[in-house]
Design goal:
This protein has 477 residues and is α/β, with parallel strands linked by helices. Helices cover 35% and strands 19% of the residues. It has 15 helices and 20 strands. It binds zinc ion. Zinc ion (ZN) binds next to loops.
């Protein structure tokens, strides 16, 4: 069947109410929302996020916050819409997903370093930076609850301009172990159960993060680690309450122990050395999602060697000009620069270790992906521009652009356990999408050629985003 005859047949079926039963063809479905919906984007090249090849001259109908039709443009020619976007010469991809962030907006009280101070404005700016960069979903895997949880509540209530926010709240670890300053610290079972119950009841984690690392890598000293039996109890506790788990690890051995303790996802991919062949095969066999998190480690040397990246449009729009100037001055002064405050991160050895290990991490990610495993973009940062950097680093790892789009969208939804409802441009899924003016399957950098960002069917008005770089014009011509 030719494309044209297929379209005609499909159209007839649609009106007969068979193949397209459930589509919002009827007037009442269209009139039910007094918003700008339904929206039709037609004549667009669709990259749906599942890894399937691009399809040309497609139409996407958005209604009730979801994609209601994804069909050849011919099929929607006569369809009424409040808002029609001509996608000729443009490319539609799903909204990007970052499965590992720590949202800005919390710092130590300068007078009392046992206390935290919340800066809501910084949190809102960071959230806005994601939408601006095409990221429509974030998972915060460790924060102070008083920073992230009110923002999550406000996002869900539609009160703020932000991507979909999923969060752990406090993470879980052992006293003195990795991330213990923003954690519920547990020592033993069953004593820990009441602490976990309290965390669950008060913070309602979407995914809980546990850290399982004795460090001793980079320029870090060895530290206490969560006992493995306790790790198992924590995973089981949260799973039995319907909550998925993710674990911080840095090396293969701890990752392996965490996986066989029952963890659902890995918040990082091992960076300490090249993965064994058995580990790569296991990752594919288990289909367990790994967050990529290259950006954070790469950034130490990038800042030092290429501070001019701070002048790229995405950074100019999403960072405070004073912060960009401060970072440039640090580099110009020859100081060791870092985006975090803990001491070893300022050391030269840390920067050099990360510079050496990032290519190894890239290779590990490429190997897991090639073997058929699941890797999902995570930055370990707090700015949407970082997600775009993560895509660059995936391309540098030797992964094809079409596959990278999947890693940054559908695989993120798999990480979250939400692949049935989001993460790709398919009928019935949440209408999260990014319209691009250049082909991302030709060059992944074209994911930055953003014309329009849509979250749950709503077109984001960039001019209203509270960006740290100041108000930006709308990018839709
Ligand atoms: Zn992290």
């Amino acid at each position: 069947m030719t494309m044209k005859s297929f379209a005609l047949a499909a159209l007839l079926l649609a009106f007969a109410g068979h193949a397209f039963a459930g589509h919002a063809f009827a007037g009442q479905a269209f009139a039910s929302k007094a918003s700008v919906e339904p929206i039709i984007i037609d004549h667009v090249t669709l990259i749906d996020g599942t890894g399937r090849a691009a399809k040309h001259d497609m139409a996407v109908v958005v209604d009730g916050g979801k994609f209601t039709m994804v069909v050849p443009s011919d099929l929607v020619r006569g369809l009424a819409a409040r808002h029609r976007i001509d996608g000729t010469g443009k490319y539609l991809i799903p909204g990007l997903i970052d499965v590992h962030i720590h949202l800005d907006g919390f710092s130590r009280d300068k007078k009392d370093d046992k206390k935290w101070v919340v800066d809501r404005k910084a949190g809102l700016q960071a959230l806005a930076s994601y939408l601006y960069a095409g990221v429509t979903t974030v998972l915060d895997v460790g924060n102070i609850p008083q920073n992230i949880l009110p923002l999550r509540a406000d996002e869900r209530a539609g009160k703020i301009l932000a991507p979909h926010v999923f969060a752990s709240g406090n993470l879980i670890t052992y006293p003195g172990s990795h991330g213990s300053d923003i954690a519920v610290n547990v020592r033993s079972w069953p004593e820990a159960e009441a602490q976990l119950q309290a965390q669950l009841d008060s913070q309602h984690p979407d995914v809980i993060k546990i850290t399982y690392d004795d460090e001793g890598w980079g320029s870090r000293p060895l530290i206490p680690i969560l006992p493995k039996d306790l790790l198992q109890h924590i995973i089981q506790f949260y799973n039995e309450h319907g909550v998925r788990t993710t674990v911080h690890i840095s090396g293969e051995n701890r990752a392996l122990e965490a996986i066989y303790s029952g963890v659902d996802t890995l918040a990082h991919t091992p960076i300490q050395g090249p993965l064994s062949e058995g580990f790569v095969k296991m990752a594919a066999a288990k289909q367990i999602p790994f967050a990529t998190t290259m950006m954070i480690g790469d950034n130490y040397s990038r800042l030092r060697e290429h501070p001019e990246y701070l002048d790229q449009p995405l950074y100019v729009a999403t960072m405070d000009p004073k912060e960009r100037a401060r970072l440039k001055k640090l580099v110009a002064d020859g100081g060791e620069t870092a985006l975090k405050n803990s001491k070893p991160l300022f050391q030269k050895s840390w920067r050099l270790w990360m510079k050496t290990q990032t290519p190894i991490l890239q290779d590990n990610l490429r190997r897991i992906d090639e073997a058929g495993g699941v890797i999902a973009t995570g930055t370990d940062g707090s700015n949407g521009a970082g997600e775009q950097r993560e895509l660059e680093l995936l391309a540098e790892a030797g992964i094809a652009p079409l596959e990278i789009v999947k890693i940054a969208t559908f695989n993120g939804a798999r990480f979250l356990g939400r692949q049935e409802t989001m993460g790709s441009i398919e009928e019935g899924k949440l209408a999260d999408a990014v319209l691009l003016s250049a082909d991302p399957t030709r060059d992944i950098d074209n994911c930055k050629a953003i014309v329009m960002v849509m979250k749950a069917g709503a077109i984001i008005d960039e001019s209203k985003l509270p960006l740290a770089g100041g108000p930006q014009p709308r990018r839709m011509p």
